[in-house]
Design goal:
The chain is mainly beta. It is 0% helix and 56% strand. Strand 4 (35-42) and strand 5 form a beta hairpin.
Length: 112
């Protein structure tokens, strides 16, 4: 499966909130009930990791078909252009990357 492209724009030190629904080519839900989800933000595809999200720390899986991933995390990295992907590791050992894209962080003006 080729990952879908979904570019994310975030504001530094603000909470990024997105919801992603995972479906197959026929728009049927793909259950993530037997999977562990992980998302990494890097400066280049094989570069340093700047932000990691896991279930319970930035990622939540839910929905009627167990196919809705909620992303909610404070983006505490410097402004710039990064890259990310969202990956599922199933209990069977199968690893699938569902989405990927650029992760553009804009510097904040007001500091909390």
């Amino acid at each position: 499966m080729i990952p879908g492209i979904y570019n994310i724009r975030a504001y530094r030190n603000d909470t990024l909130q997105r919801t992603v629904t995972i479906t197959d080519g026929s728009a049927l839900p793909i259950s993530l009930a037997n999977a562990t989800m992980k998302m990494e933000v890097r400066d280049k595809p094989d570069g340093d990791v700047y932000l990691t999200l896991t279930e319970g720390d930035g990622l939540t899986v839910g929905g009627a078909g167990n196919n809705v991933v909620t992303i909610s995390k404070v983006v505490n990295i410097d402004g710039g252009c990064y890259f990310y992907d969202l990956q599922a590791t199933f209990t069977s050992g199968v690893v699938t990357t569902y989405i990927k894209g650029s992760f553009l962080v804009t510097d904040d003006i007001t500091l909390a």
